[in-house]
């Protein structure tokens, strides 16, 4: 599905938009939670100050020791109220009756003290108490101790804070919640201590926290986007713009990722890991008789994205320094392919391409583990290309390996690279493979083809066989035979085949056979 760009691009655009929407939501939510936490903590500090100031006022007045609602007593009560922002009224009690208040003065009819809603730290608290001195039209929070009470309003504290935020102040005693001020039921009883507890819904966020003793708690909540109340369209416009750009960038990012997924480098790396290399075999023919005498192993690669040509993957394998891994995988597979080969006509010549770098770095020595117990009808030949100079520092060991395992050596693409005669002599070369570029147009006497007799002369000096590569027609066959070339391979005879087809080819064109399993 992803290989179809008509689907891939809209899909990645949509995914990019969705991801950016989620990111916007998460970022905006965490911004709101942080903001609410800051507001809540500051508010709670103000709240605690207000309450403790009220306690102090009540304590200070009690300490003055008035027993009557005298002028001096009222004066002191009014002075305390004047000095406070949050105390709206102060009352004086005598024998359980409210006898005067700063707001109403001396009451004609004293008011009987009722049961408090809560008692915290010895202070009685009335919640949302309708004040009789104001004909029950005003309610407030009352705090009383000894002969004095104060009427508190939290409005002052809350007024200073953000209008877009909702608050609830509650008192909590024995697990029972009493609403003190603000929006009812905002506090969900999630907080137990001064630790801020946050909760998020899809469209709103809230925090809760309580005082040291957990008696007074605060809930603060804000609906998402409320800040944009004045300009909701601006907010929506901004979100859409961000989503659009994310969608477009995600198309580009995904295309880059898709290219990476399909890159030859990644496919080859995975191919090495998963043994994706398949041996194909191209027959080597004796020109005189037309008989098959062996084959060259040629690597093929296929994965779920399709096939890669050797010219694409061979350089990448080399760049990734995975040449030996690939060769090892192919040797193992081909030894298995030819395990049951039988011969009535001499050994079967199996030519395996080896990267020059694996000769230079000694990786080739690892092949002795693979070649220990192979079919005796096989004559293994390591084919080394001329495209890289051989470094002979480890030659002794390489020669030992070749000797011990009866492995022959051929030089591939001869005439195009770095080989020199003394090196070839040292390696005891068995075969020179003449590069296809010499064979092309041999029938018309191309300039390059006129060099073939020189290669034949070198091979004679080395006592080596010659295989002509890339033979494509009978005219070339005729010319090569005239030049005393004995062996060849090329599409004129057969292309490289997978083992199943190559077996059939062998059965028809040679005396080699396979035991039936
Ligand atoms: N180190 C390794 N190199 C390998 C291995 N397998 C392949 N190769 C190298 O990759 C190059 C390309 O190989 P490939 O595409 O397999 O081509 C080979 C033949 O298919 C092609 N050929 C053979 N006959 C003809 C022909 O008549 N006409 C024509 N146009 N092409 C023909 O030539 C390639 C054989 O090359 P060579 O190895 O030089 O004999 C190539 O350089 C391979 O060497 C591997 O396992 N390891």
From TrEMBL:
Topology of the protein relative to the lipid bilayer: Multi-pass membrane protein
Enzyme class of the recorded protein, top EC level: hydrolase
Subcellular location, record wording: Cell membrane
Gene3D superfamilies referenced in this protein's UniProt entry, alphabetically: EAL domain
PROSITE patterns linked to this entry: EAL (PS50883)
Keyword annotations of the record: c-di-GMP, Cell membrane, Hydrolase, Membrane, Transmembrane, Transmembrane helix
Residues that span the membrane, as ranges: 12-33, 234-258
EAL domain ranges (all copies): 261-510
Domain of life: Bacteria
InterPro entries in the record: CSS-motif_dom (IPR024744), Cyclic-di-GMP_PDE-like (IPR050706), EAL_dom (IPR001633), EAL_sf (IPR035919)
EC number(s) from the headed UniProt entry: 3.1.4.52
Reactions catalysed: 3',3'-c-di-GMP + H2O = 5'-phosphoguanylyl(3'->5')guanosine + H(+)
Official protein name in the record: cyclic-guanylate-specific phosphodiesterase
Natural source organism: Thalassotalea profundi
């Amino acid at each position: 599905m992803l290989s179809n760009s008509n689907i891939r691009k809209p899909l990645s655009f949509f995914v990019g938009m969705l991801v950016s929407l989620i990111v916007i939501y998460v970022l905006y939510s965490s911004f709101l939670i942080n903001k609410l936490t800051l507001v809540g903590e500051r508010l709670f500090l103000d709240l605690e100050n207000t309450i403790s100031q009220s306690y102090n006022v009540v304590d200070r007045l009690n300490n003055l020791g008035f027993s009557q609602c005298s002028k001096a007593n009222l004066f002191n009560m009014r002075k305390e109220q004047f000095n406070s922002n949050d105390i709206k009224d102060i009352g004086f009690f005598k024998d359980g009756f409210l006898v005067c208040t700063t707001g109403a003065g001396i009451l004609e009819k004293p008011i009987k003290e009722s049961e408090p809603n809560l008692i915290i730290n010895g202070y009685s608290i009335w919640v949302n108490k309708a004040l009789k001195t104001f004909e029950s039209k005003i309610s407030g929070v009352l705090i009383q101790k000894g002969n004095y009470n104060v009427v508190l309003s939290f409005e002052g504290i809350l007024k200073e804070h953000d209008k877009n935020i909702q608050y609830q102040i509650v008192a909590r005693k024995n697990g029972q919640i009493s609403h003190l001020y603000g929006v009812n039921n905002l506090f969900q009883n999630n907080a137990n201590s001064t630790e801020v507890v946050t909760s998020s819904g899809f469209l709103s966020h809230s925090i809760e926290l309580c005082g040291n003793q957990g008696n007074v708690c605060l809930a603060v909540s804000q609906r998402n986007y409320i800040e944009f109340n004045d300009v909701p369209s601006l907010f929506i416009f901004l979100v859409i713009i961000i989503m659009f750009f994310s969608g477009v960038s995600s198309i580009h990012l995904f295309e880059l990722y898709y290219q990476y997924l399909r890159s030859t480098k990644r496919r080859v790396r995975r191919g090495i890991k998963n043994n994706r290399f398949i041996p194909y075999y191209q027959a080597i023919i004796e020109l005189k008789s037309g008989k098959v005498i062996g084959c060259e192993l040629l690597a093929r690669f296929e994965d779920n994205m399709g096939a890669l040509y050797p010219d694409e993957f061979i350089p990448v394998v080399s760049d990734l320094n995975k040449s030996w891994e690939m060769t090892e995988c192919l040797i193992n597979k081909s030894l298995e392919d030819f395990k049951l080969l039988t011969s009535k006509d001499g050994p079967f010549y199996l030519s395996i391409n080896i990267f020059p770098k694996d000769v230079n770095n000694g990786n080739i020595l690892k092949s002795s583990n693979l070649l220990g117990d192979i079919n005796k009808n096989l004559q293994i030949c390591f084919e080394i290309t001329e495209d890289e100079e051989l470094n002979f520092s480890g030659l002794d060991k390489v020669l030992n390996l070749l000797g011990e395992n009866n492995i022959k050596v051929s030089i591939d693409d001869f005439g195009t690279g770095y080989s020199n005669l003394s090196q070839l002599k040292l390696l005891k070369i068995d075969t020179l493979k003449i590069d296809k570029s010499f064979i092309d147009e041999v029938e018309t006497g191309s300039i390059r083809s006129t060099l073939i007799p020189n290669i034949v002369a070198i091979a004679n000096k080395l006592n080596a066989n010659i295989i002509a590569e890339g033979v494509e027609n009978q005219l070339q066959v005729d010319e090569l035979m005239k030049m005393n070339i004995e062996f060849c391979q090329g599409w004129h005879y057969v292309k490289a085949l997978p083992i199943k087809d190559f077996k059939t080819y062998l059965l028809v064109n040679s005396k080699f056979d396979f035991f039936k399993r």
